[in-house]
Structures are given as structure tokens and as C-alpha cells.
Amino acid sequence: MTRRQRLETLFAQAAGYIDQQTGGVVPAIQPSTTFVRDENYQLLRDNNIYARDDNDIVRLAEKILATAENADDALVFPTGMAAIAALMRTVPAGETILMQSQIYWGTTKWVREYCDRRDIKLIEQDTSDTAAAVAAIEQASPTIVFVETPSNPWLRITDLQALAEATDRAGGVLAVDSTAAGPAISNPIDLGAHIVMHSGTKSINGHSDVLAGVLAIDDENRALWEHIKVDRHDAGAVIGSFEAYLLIRGMRTLPVRMERMSENAMAVATYLQGHDQVDHVYYPGLESHEAHELAKKQMQNGFGPLLSFTVKGDKQRALDVVGKLNLFKRATSLGGVESLVEHRFTIESTTGIPETLIRLSVGIEHIDDLIADLDSALS
Ligand SMILES: *Cc1c(COP(=O)(O)O)cnc(C)c1O
């Protein structure tokens, strides 16, 4: 599927959707789980049997996302983790997964336990070190290389083109968790990646009221895609009609939201970098970021809502700052219109997260209010 419209147009118009029965410009929610056959036992529509796979509003969400990612096909799942699990379940016992180290903790935890149970060899590798990552791929010939860029919460950037080439040579599949950027900012398939994954719960929905996951693929003829489709059907990891409706409703404003969030996040990062109580700011939009040039090549229209910083002092000082914030709500997750703050060490104390690290998801509020909130918490 090649994108003919710019992303703003594609999302605003929900890929040109018009309800054929009513002329509505918004998709109807069809809650039925099952579809009748006529007196000759023929289906009224041959791709409508049972809602596990046959759901028009889910199909519409998938069409929008596949088009946005320049993908051949896309599947929507009930959560991001369900999408990751369906992907990982394609790997047979005895083979190897190479996963980026220090990424979203939920992924790390699940994949570790899964590989353990399945007798799959797991290599955890810092893929932002391109030379080391390419060498590890060449040496291990992994079935799946799984990376997250920008990574959560370290904001590390992985060179997708270099890793796609190495993975191709090794005969594997490069899968990219692109949640922190989203389809309005980064399109990994254009850079050679084979699979793009999103937690739709985050910026794609953008209103903190839907759980969803996405996989999109560069070539639907890959055996792995058939395996994933069968797995979603058989294991039943499907999203409901109401959630798919909300996901599409949220997606219509995705490019506009991302633009504002990125602008705000850049301003917050710049402000924090100049603050004498702040030790280090992790944001790929900053020229001081270790991979700023690479990020500029891989991301368009901004650098996303996610940023982390460390404060001077100790764990208590970080918790004090977090506790004094008013507008930034103390809650996990990211990519919603409201700004959130997290003390990640409290959640994952064994993964090397500094005690003084504060993670922000910057929303679409007025930037002056956000800076004022940070200013009073830090002083
Ligand atoms: C939240 C998140 C996930 C998991 O998504 P859920 O929808 O919560 O299952 C995966 N990857 C990243 C980077 C995330 O932020």
C-alpha cells in the first residue's frame, strides 16, 4: 500500500471513510459478534462470519494504520503487549531473539520469561551502539531483532537502516516498537524495517481512554505474517468494536497532537537543560543528545512527547520534585493530551534506572503553564 495523501489528510479523513448505508462521515459501531446466513446457508457477506476476525470498524483502523506506515498490511490488537506476544509466538523453540536492552519494562519482563519457558535463546543488546549491534546480529543470526526507538525511558536512538540491512543479511526480521514516535513522526518500514509495532494505548489514541496494539508489515507474503494472523484469530487477541471506534476517533487528530506535543517537549527539554538543579536531559531533539543527527534523519515533524531527566541530589529529591508538580499528573503511560510524570525507579528498581530519573510525557497544554509547573517544583 503506497501512501498517496499526506498523513494529516489521511488521518483527518479516516482514509476517506464514508458509511455506505447512511452517508455518515464517521464509522458506525456494529457490535454484533455473529452474522446470519440466508435460507440456502449462504453468508450475506462472505467475509462476515464471526467478529473475532470479521469486524468492519477494526478493518478500517487497520487500513488507516497500514497506509500511514506505508505497510502492506496491519493488524490491531487489544493491547500493545498482545501485539508483541503474537509476534514473539512465531519464533520456534531453539531459535534466537535479539532484543534491545533497557527498553519498556513490560516488554523486557514478558520476553525474558517467555524465552525461558520456550527454550528460545535471548540476547539483550544495546542496539543504539550500531557497530556492536550489527556484530551481534551477524554472529547470532536471530530470527527476530526487536528494537524500540526512541527507547523508553532512555530515549536511545537505533539506526534502523543499518540494523535492517544486517538483519536482512542474517535472514531475520527487524521489528520496531515505534510507540514513542508514532506514525506521524517516524515510519520504520520506509527505513527498511520489516515489522512496526505500536502501543495504540499511547499517542495513536492519545486520550488515555483506550488500550490497543498494532503490528504492521512491509510484505504480507512473509510466512510470519500468516502465523501472526492465525495466532490472533485462534488465540483470540482481538479488540472490540467500541475500542476500535475510539481509536479511530483519536487518530483523526494524531498529526496535530504530535506536532504540539513535540513542540512543547522540545521547549521543556530546552528549559530543563538550562536549569541548575538538573543533571542531564534525555531528549533526541536536543543537539546535545548523543544521536541527534540520526534522530533528525529518522523522525519528521518533531521528536515526540517522551523525555527523561535526572535531577541533582538523591532519590528523595527526585520524589520531592515529582510530588510538587501539579499539572504533570503522577501516572504511568505516555502520549495522551495531558502531561504525565513518572519516577521509573519506583517501578523498576533492578533495571539500571537512576534513582534520580524523572520521565515526562508532555501533553498539549499551554507551554507557559507547563514550564511554570516545573519551575515551582524544581525551586
Ligand atoms: C506502553 C508500551 C507498550 C505496551 O503497550 P500496552 O498497550 O500497555 O500493552 C509497549 N511498548 C512501549 C514503548 C510502551 O510505551
Automatic annotation (TrEMBL):
SUPFAM superfamilies in UniProt: PLP-dependent transferases
GO molecular function: transferase activity
Origin superkingdom: Bacteria
Cofactor: pyridoxal 5'-phosphate
InterPro entries linked: Cys/Met-Metab_PyrdxlP-dep_enz, PyrdxlP-dep_Trfase, PyrdxlP-dep_Trfase_major, PyrdxlP-dep_Trfase_small
UniProt cross-references to Gene3D superfamilies, sorted A to Z: Aspartate Aminotransferase, domain 1, Type I PLP-dependent aspartate aminotransferase-like (Major domain)
Pfam families: Cys_Met_Meta_PP
Keyword Ribonucleoprotein in annotation: no
Listed transmembrane segments: none
UniProt entry keywords in alphabetical sequence: Pyridoxal phosphate, Transferase
Family membership noted in the UniProt record: Belongs to the trans-sulfuration enzymes family.
Protein name: PLP-dependent transferase
Species this chain originates from: Maritalea mediterranea
